[in-house]
Write a structure and sequence with these properties.
Shape: globular
Low-confidence stretches: none
Structural class: alpha/beta
Radius of gyration: 19 Å
Largest sheet: 6 strands, mixed
Mean pLDDT: 93
Distance between the termini: 26 Å
Oligomer: single chain
Strand order of the largest sheet: 2-1-3-5-6-4
Number of helices: 9
Strand content: 15-25%
Number of strands: 12
Helix content: 25-40%
């Protein structure tokens, strides 16, 4: 039940038909007895500036989830951002603090890293290859750097994107070894597909699976199916894997903590969610 005392979290993006977050957050709030509600708010790209300003005038608003196509544009609206936002160049969470200032953070990468760690995989000192240097890949790379990996290899079909990401990582993590130019997965402890490859049935694999060792952990961001062709091939080799939807459910605890609603486990969120994965 929404009342005059309910705290709102805006979910800002367009189109709203594909939004899944309200069906995860709101059942969890209800189960926990938390008087808060995530509300989808459709804002087209051309209306984002005035739309964002108007939404953040609501006095019962704690903050917002930011999704496509606004993750980059919102950065210019914020008073402060975290290193993850600087590195990714995008933001997906905005908190209005008690003094009215707006803090932005980026949790795509946090969700990925939380999932890996919860599966018992060591990241401190690991060698990691990330294919894809767009918004999601950049966020994952930022969180991997924060998790103290020893080496990050970055690859993107657009070489300049990988180089730009490498530069931002070196600025914030000068001790991190960063290299670009190859997506050969041989010898890495963790490899990550942060590209759209796997969305379509005829997509090529993002890595040469023959060069992935059975001891390598393989992570995926594509959520089209639970086990993409990459993950099926890696699993057949004996690799531990992480499905794309794990990142979604693992990032929500980070959002909850950011907004001051306590924490939850991914399993708790799956149990109460009004959607099935």
């Amino acid at each position: 039940m929404i009342s005059g005392k309910t705290t709102l979290i805006a979910h800002i993006g367009y189109p709203t038909e594909s939004f899944k977050a309200p069906m995860i957050y709101n059942p969890w709030f209800e189960r926990r007895g938390i008087d808060a509600f995530v509300v989808p708010m459709g804002v087209k790209a051309e209306d984002f500036g005035p739309g964002f300003d108007a939404i953040f005038r609501f006095t019962n608003l704690r903050g917002a989830l930011i999704t496509m196509p606004h993750k980059v544009a919102v950065v210019d609206k914020l008073d402060e951002v975290t290193p993850a936002v600087h590195i990714a160049g995008a933001c997906n969470a905005v908190l209005r603090r008690d003094d009215g200032t707006l803090l932005g953070d980026q949790f795509d990468g946090a969700g990925f890293v939380r999932g890996v760690l919860r599966k018992g995989r060591q990241l401190d000192g690991a060698r990691v290859l990330v294919s894809g240097a767009g918004g999601v890949g950049s966020a994952i790379a930022a969180s991997l750097a924060a998790a103290s990996v020893a080496e990050l290899a970055l690859f993107d079909a657009r070489a300049d994107s990988a180089e730009a990401l490498a530069g931002r990582l070196r600025q914030h993590y000068p001790r991190l070894q960063v290299r670009t130019g190859s997506n050969d997965p041989q010898g890495f402890d963790v490899v990550v597909n942060a590209t759209p490859l796997g969305m379509k049935p005829d997509d090529p694999l993002p890595f040469d699976v023959a060069r992935i060792g059975p001891e390598t952990f393989v992570g995926e961001v594509v959520m089209k199916s639970e086990y993409t062709p990459l993950l099926r091939a890696a699993r057949d080799k004996g690799c531990a894997v992480q499905v794309g939807t794990d990142m979604l459910f693992e990032m929500i605890p980070a959002y909850l903590e950011f907004f001051g609603f306590g924490s939850a486990t991914a399993d708790e969120l799956r149990e109460s969610a009004a959607i099935a994965y």
